[in-house]
Amino acid sequence: MSHVLVTGANGFVGHALCRALLGAGHTVTGLVRRAGQLESGVNEWVDVSTDFADVGATWPDALQVDCVVHLAARVHVMREESADPDAAFRATNVDGALRVARAARRHGVRRFVFVSSVKALAEGDSGRPLREDDTPMPQDAYGRSKLAAEQALSSYGEESGLDVVIVRPPLVYGPQVRANFLRLMDAVWKGLPLPLASIDARRSLIYVENLADALMHCAVDPRAAHQCFHVADAAAPTVAELARLLARHLQKTARLLPVPLGLLHLAGRLTGRSAHVDRLVGALQLDTARIRTTLGWQPPYSTDEGLAETARWYRSTHGGRAC
């Protein structure tokens, strides 16, 4: 069994990963900025420094781990408030990640799993599922920071001997999900008409428990050494299919309108949300053959099972409130 350090262990994905690791018999330490809110059985390490500035100095003398899974990040936001988004994302997602990697290497850690994003590669698939070796073309500050972190960590790994593994998930969903996925569930729950019926582009996504399982394999499987992996659910639904599946599990009816794509693009231009509309109507599928062939990994849950569990959480926590 291994000892795994998880940064961001009290976050959405962190909780699921810690449960998976503990369930498989591994020892887990969570590196967090705020005490509490960790899974039972996870050892807590609190470091309050900004962007892990003090992580090297505060690393506990007795802490010896085999692998670090770096989840902590400045995440993609809908309404950016920073005057220099690229600098803000880089400070956390590149500089902070490098500080953790360097501290880990100095303390004998052998493997560093960096949780990146498909946004480091592209916002669309240009007609075929994206592969790990496709030319990166990130479109926003978040994606650029994730790509820069991948490159910086890979270079550091080559120089230092640290085994760096990169994992690129698409949209992650599951209980406790926020942002656009939660807004979609809110809209379906309230019976709002949605202009999604004509969108036939397919988009990969991943259930949080599937992502946790993949990350656990990347943390402990020797065959993952120095690899970059795309991970996703087996299914890649259209947005319309996703809304209908959610409606079925929410026990509601999806009210989907067949609005032509041209009108959606026009609405995006008129409202200043062209990028958002482009992502909504565009295809984004991931080729996951590498992790399946290299590690023999398959998502343990189907998309339908993941959506069912997400809908059960929503009904129990949001169903009685005014959305």
From TrEMBL:
Q: Give its E.C. classification number.
A: 5.1.3.26
The record's listing under InterPro entries reads: Epimerase_deHydtase (IPR001509), Lipid_A_modif_metabolic_enz (IPR050177), NAD(P)-bd_dom_sf (IPR036291)
* Superkingdom, taxonomy of origin: Bacteria
Q: Which UniProt keywords apply?
A: Isomerase
Q: Name one Pfam family in it.
A: Epimerase
Instruction: Indicate the segments forming the NAD-dependent epimerase/dehydratase domain, all copies.
Output: 4-224
GO molecular function per UniProt: isomerase activity
Cite the SUPFAM superfamilies for this sequence: NAD(P)-binding Rossmann-fold domains
Show the Gene3D superfamilies listed in the entry. NAD(P)-binding Rossmann-like Domain
Record's protein name? N-acetyl-alpha-D-glucosaminyl-diphospho-ditrans, octacis-undecaprenol 4-epimerase
Please name the taxonomic classification of the source: Bacteria, Pseudomonadati, Pseudomonadota, Betaproteobacteria, Burkholderiales
Gene symbol here is gnu
